[in-house]
Amino acid sequence: MGAPRKHPDEVRDRAVRLVRDLVDSGEDGVTLTGACRRVVEQLGINTDTLRNWVKPALVDDSERSGLSTSERARLAELEREVVDVLGQAGAAVSEVVLGGCSKRPTRVDSLTLSRTNSRLVRARMTT
Q1: 102-109: long-range contacts at Cβ-Cβ below 8 A with a sequence spacing of 24 or more?
Q2: d(CA 104, CA 120)
Q3: pLDDT of residue 98
């Protein structure tokens, strides 16, 4: 869980809308950074914070390439699942590999699985 937000969602949405309006207006060839600088003077927000709000909004609206917010959330969820599955697989493999050992290591540091046939290639263990 992340830290609590310093700025309410309404301020965030308004700031993003103001920046996008400035950039879209084409006034004096305003860049994203220039628009952010103008808006932060009005709202009292850090320039980098505002830019970090605007960029994902542009990606979500398909105005910029990259992973959308929902795609990033799904990717993070899948990465957590992979870590969980590998942890369970590591415990099962260490039980099979070390089942007959009289002196058991305290943990398995790493497992490398072959992608072609899913067999154990190497297990480095510490005591």
Answers
A1: 103/127
A2: 18
A3: 66
Q: What is the distance between the alpha carbons of residues 26 and 37, in angstroms, rounded to a whole number?
A: 16
- For the chain, list the domains and their CATH numbers: 9-66 (1.10.10), 78-126 (no CATH)
Instruction: Write the pLDDT tens digit of every residue in 25-66.
Output: 877 788 888 899 999 998 989 999 999 999 999 999 888 899
Q: What is the mean pLDDT of residues 17-21?
A: 92
CB 86 within 8 A of CB 55: no
The alpha helices in the chain, defined as continuous H runs, are: 9-25, 32-43, 47-60, 69-98
Task: Give the max Cα distance, the chain.
Answer: 77
